[in-house]
Amino acid sequence: MEVKVRSREKTFLILVLVGAFVIRLFSLNQSLWLDEATSVLAAKNFSFPDLIFKFSPGDFHPPLYYLVLKMWISFFGTSEIAVRVLSVISGVATVYIVYLIGKKLSGSGVAVTAAAFLATAPLHIYYSQEARMYSLETLLAVLVVWFFVSEKWIGLVITAAILLYTDYLPALILIPLFLIKKKKLVLPFIGVLLLLLPWFPIFLNQLQNGLAVHSNAPNWWVTLGKTNFKELALVPVKFMLGRISFYNKSLYAATVLGSGAIFGTALFGTLRKWQKARPLWLLFLFPILAAAALGLYISVFSYFRLLFVLPLFYLLVAYGTQNLGARWFKPLLAGILFINLTASSLYLFTPRFHREDWKSAVSWLEQDAGQKSAATLFVTNNQRDPYIYYSKGVPSFGPDGLGRGNFEKIYLMRYVQPIFDPQDSLRKKIESVGYQRMAEKDFNGVTVWAYERNTYANLH
Predict the structure, then answer these.
(1) Distance spanning both ends of the chain, measured CA to CA
(2) For residue 32, what is the DSSP state?
(3) 390: Cβ–Cβ under 8 A, 6 or more apart, which residues?
């Protein structure tokens, strides 16, 4: 009998992992957005030492993801699918580690349920398809938790150091671990700090550069993640529904409330065995609250930066679902999987919910330019990476590009214009020197205005 149970559990786990992998392959070739393109171009164009000593000081993240991505693309190339598969693999591996944690803490039922929830989780699927560090850091964070519950301290030290060389905010998960087992973690945490010491001077440089954004680009500072009521409310909403929304706000509100009732019921079930659930709640809530407090002073608070605690959310949901007994288990299991699969399907198969469509924008622009001399202008130089990634012909410039040549056509990228050019100075300058707007196009958030010199426009 026990052999049959183990065999069935193994079968369920394999199905969950295969399903997690397959579902993360849909729409994987959608356009790269700004941050992804920056990651890919940095990994492609900088040497390993330059990624550490030249690129990183101007970035907000440690260098490990970029170094891993550089190795990855040397084998698999820089297509959208190739650069994202690294995150897909990290995402599926996270599902497996969540299974291991669940089994260690509460047995096979919670383990398989939590793995199934995370495998279908819309927010986790979204970031398992992004060429950024968030999927990898989530894997590393749950590995730290796994080594913690298994009391494998050498593994914890090494993984925690790797985690903090991947991103900074997940350091917040180490604090509740220390609070749970202070005596056993003193030496391991000293080991982590020693491994991080070589990076400390560059971290201080990054911190100084990051804080300078507050005065140099105040609108961008707020956009990056300032704590406010909206950002706080988005954490539970996005954890449940991912990055979807509806034009009909009443429908969206009803969806949020209905989903909240189902997830809330499951989480309420954790109270039945509070002593066992309390450490998980601490691991889940502390990083969120600490990040919110930090976000009052530094722009770090946003739901996607908290992806590393999402697996803990689903472990709690699975644990609560199991605790409520057979009467509630099947309805809650069905309800949560229905929410996950519906929200994930809406994201995967609805282009409106995909990333900024730079691929289509650049394709249209270069086809529209034809054989005419043309240039694309941006309101700031540091937003050009996705254009550079896709462009095959029409050159791009920052706001000083108007004087680079006698162009027949100008394509003005309206991207982040309210943040970096709130006075709309570049548009006014283009129109003041004789260019007439001929077309306005939007590609899922990438807005392009096409201009021609009046002399050419009049020919039509």
Answers:
(1) 81
(2) P
(3) 31, 32, 358, 359, 362, 363
Q: Structure tokens of 294?
A: 């930090």
Pairing type for strands 396-397 and 374-377 reads parallel
The amino acid at 13 = L
> Going by C-beta distance under 8 Å and a sequence separation of 6 or more, which residues neighbour residue 423?
none
CA–CA gap between residue 122 and residue 385 (Å, rounded): 27
DSSP code of 53? I
Nearest alpha-carbon partner for 62 in 255, 197, 206: 206
Q: How far is CA 416 from CA 185, 207, 409, in A?
A: 45, 23, 21
User: Which ranges of 370-443 does DSSP label H, i.e. alpha helix?
Assistant: 385-390, 417-420, 425-432
Q: Which residue's entry shows tokens 């991080």?
A: 196
Neighbouring C-beta atoms of residue 392, cutoff 10 Å: 7
Other C-beta atoms lying within 10 Å of the C-beta of residue 276: 13
Instruction: Let me know: does 317 contact 263? Beta carbons within 8 Å.
Output: yes
Q: What single DSSP character describes residue 55?
A: I
Residue-by-residue pLDDT tens, the chain, 460 positions: 455 557 888 999 999 999 999 999 999 999 999 999 999 999 999 999 999 999 999 999 999 999 999 999 999 999 999 999 999 999 999 999 999 999 999 999 999 999 999 999 999 999 999 999 999 999 999 999 999 999 999 999 999 999 999 999 999 999 999 999 998 999 999 999 999 999 999 999 998 887 777 666 676 666 667 899 999 999 999 999 999 999 999 999 999 999 999 999 999 999 999 999 999 999 999 999 999 999 998 889 999 999 999 999 999 999 999 999 889 999 999 999 999 999 999 999 999 999 999 999 999 999 999 999 999 999 999 899 999 999 999 999 999 999 888 899 999 999 999 999 999 999 999 999 999 999 999 999 999 999 999 864 444 4
Would you say the pTM of this structure is higher than 0.70? yes
Do the beta carbons of residue 444 and residue 361 sit within 8 Å? Answer: no
Token duo for residue 445:
């958030």
Please name the residue that has the structure tokens 């030496």.
Answer: 187
Strand-pair category, 374-377 with 409-413: parallel
Cα→Cα distances 43→40, 72, 425, Å: 5, 9, 33
- CA dist., res. 264 & res. 170, Å (int): 25
Pair 217, 291: CB distance under 8 Å: no
Instruction: List alpha helices for 226-273, DSSP H.
Output: 229-241, 249-268
